[in-house]
Amino acid sequence: MRAIQITQFGGPEVLSEAELPDPVAGPGLLLVDVTSAGVNYADTHTVENSYLARATLPLVPGAEVVGRTPDGRRVVAVTQNGGYAQKAVAEEHLALDVPDAVTDAQALAVVVQGLTAWHLLRTCARLAAGESVVVHAAAGGTGSLAVQLAKAYGAGRVIATASSKEKRDLALELGADTAVDGNPDGLKERLIEANGGRKADIVLEMAGGPVFDASLAALAPFGRLVTYGMASRVPATPLAAAQLMGRSRAVVGFWLAHCLDRPGMYREPVAELLAMTAEGRLKPQVGGIYPLSEAARAHQDLRARRTFGKLVLDVTR
Question: 24, 165, 218, 294: most buried, per Cβ within 10 A?
């Protein structure tokens, strides 16, 4: 089968096409003939071995696929790597049927990034009606869905951040009440001003470093900052307990891997998001579809912040 494989860790340049043996599905596993594979920012960390889960070589990256099962079902599934290939193996309980009205790219947007946005708001931040929500990287795969879900779940004011006017305009089109530049310089002040002079109740943060620091400084008493990424590859300033206690703030970490085997935390939310998409109530944004052979270019574009929404590899090309 055709696949994208890495034999050394590094940047996009280590992604190369290879002919590999087909994977074999053992007990409890499902073989999927892949039509499309999702690209996530976490994949860029996996390729350089800087993610939470350490990787081993050789490796076929890719944590989500859409394709056909041997009995002809069209499914979307999370995988433990191996997605950038014509065939992939997934645990049976992590595969869900895709409604006819949902495209491959939309299904891929929902299964990891949509599910992440769902848990950021529901499980971690426990959004209450009327609360203000800051969504960083609001034109990205997770951010663009978090903006829409925050409004659907009753947020009072959604404040989007993004690196360009085009991306901020997209966030506004998706339902954000206002959008500001995400540059960390002066970010605290811009967030407070965008919230009518008040600090924010909830911040969804995935950059780390100075963006994390500014976000925490812009958090109201009893506010919750949910951190779910480290895109800047720069560590945040270390936190002391007194910094949280003294202002009644909470910092919550989130990693999607902890949801996959817990009852009610995977299949049910994904089914809800797929249904919302099929009905047109949720609009996953597709920012680019690349041939499988151009996986390296997809990673380059993602890391350079040239993209928005969901990036997809067309495995049939």
Answer: 218
What homologous superfamily is domain 113-258 in, according to CATH? NAD(P)-binding Rossmann-like Domain (3.40.50.720)
Position 204 scores a pLDDT of 98
Which whole-number Å values give the CA distances from 71 to 32, 83, 107, in the listed order? 10, 20, 20
Mean pLDDT, rounded, of the chain = 96
Residue segments in the chain with a per-residue pLDDT below the cut of 50: none
Separation CA 214–CA 185 (nearest Å): 9
Contact 119, 263 (CB under 8 A): no
pLDDT value at position 232? 86
CATH of domain 2-97+285-314: 3.90.180.10
> pTM for the full model?
0.94
